[in-house]
Amino acid sequence: MTLRSVIRGSGSALPARAVSNAEMATMVDTTDEWIVERTGIRNRHIAGEGETTATLATEACRKAIEAAGIDAASIDLIVLGTCSPDQTFPATATIVQNALGCRGGIAFDVAAVCSGFLYAFATADALLRTGAAKRALVIGAETMSRLLDWDDRTTCVLFGDGAGAVVLEAVDVDESDPMAPGILATRLHADGAHGDLLHMDGGPSTTGSIGKLRMKGREVFRHAVVNLAAVLEEVLVASGYKADDIDWVVPHQANARILDATARKLGLPEEKVIITVDRHANTSAASVPLAFDTAVRDGRIKPGDLVMFEAMGGGFTWGASLVRV
């Protein structure tokens, strides 16, 4: 028998306010046609008064816990990926922990921008497999709208707010069974040499302010396609599977053109790719778990399916993980 981290349930949350491209066109110099053609985005959700990264994360966690059929008090590890925490400290994960009533276990944030959920996922997996915890909440949650320059039409139209979460549990499985559930392989990378291509232009230690998001879109696109295709191949080699074996790819929802280009590079058909960027825009660390939960709840992703998660974000950071759900 082998100890694996198994997904027991998922949940997601979106702010109440939905903002269409038509509404965006009343706020900045843009059009629905321009946004759709370049990004595939048609809608995004924007956090309002009383909605924060922690409140969205907590709602997503409650749904994941309900889906898993467990007691929140049994959670002894919370890892939250975000670049828009409620405060510099304490960690937003501890705020969620307190709201859920599962105090006393491990709780911390991971800052890897759009790859934040995957970094959190891999970290929780490692802690579960070493016995440091038995049951974890892995969260991606963001209020990106509060980091945007709303006068910059090239970036403010791209992002939205939201949260997604999964319950992971350490389970003994028969490794010889090809249908045994759990995380099969994960690979993570970072390259700080390209940090200036997607970054915040401020911070507590430099400017004493939050700053605003800045991005060089063309360069990010080029790196994203190459890096994501490479890391997906790494995970396939590590797991012993081939691209044809994958039932679903759940990618970071940055841009429809990146999703298309990455799928083509691997020879994956479009119908195997979960796409929610049109509805949610780029929700950074929240996008992978949000898309996963959407596909689970609409019946596309089913128990036993082989699912590939992948993401790339500022830093650059990137990674992928293959999971039997």
- So, CATH architecture of the largest domain? 3-Layer(aba) Sandwich
Radius of gyration: 18 Å
Give the CA-based shape: globular
CATH homologous group name of the largest domain = Thiolase/Chalcone synthase
State the total count of DSSP E strands: 13
Name the structural class.
alpha/beta
CATH structural class of the largest domain? Alpha Beta
Count of helices? 10
Low-confidence stretches: none
CATH topology of the largest domain: Peroxisomal Thiolase, Chain A, domain 1
In whole angstroms, the N-to-C terminal distance is 18 Å
Write down the secondary-structure element order. EEHHEHEHEHEHEEEEHEHHHEE
Strand content: 25-35%
Mean pLDDT: 96
Strands in their spatial order, largest beta sheet: 1-7-6-4-5
Major sheet size, sense and barrel closure: 5 strands, mixed
How many separate domains?
2
The proportion of residues forming helix, as a percent range, comes to 25-40%
Show the helix and strand layout:
Layout: E1 2-13, E2 17-20, H1 21-24, H2 32-39, E3 43-46, H3 53-68, E4 77-81, H4 92-100, E5 106-110, H5 116-129, E6 135-143, H6 153-156, E7 161-173, E8 182-190, E9 198-200, E10 213-215, H7 217-239, E11 248-251, H8 256-266, H9 277-280, H10 287-297, E12 306-313, E13 317-324
Parallel strand pairs: 4-5, 4-6, 11-12
Antiparallel strand pairs: 1-7, 2-3, 6-7, 8-13, 9-10, 12-13
Give a short synopsis of this structure.
With 325 residues, the chain is an alpha/beta fold.
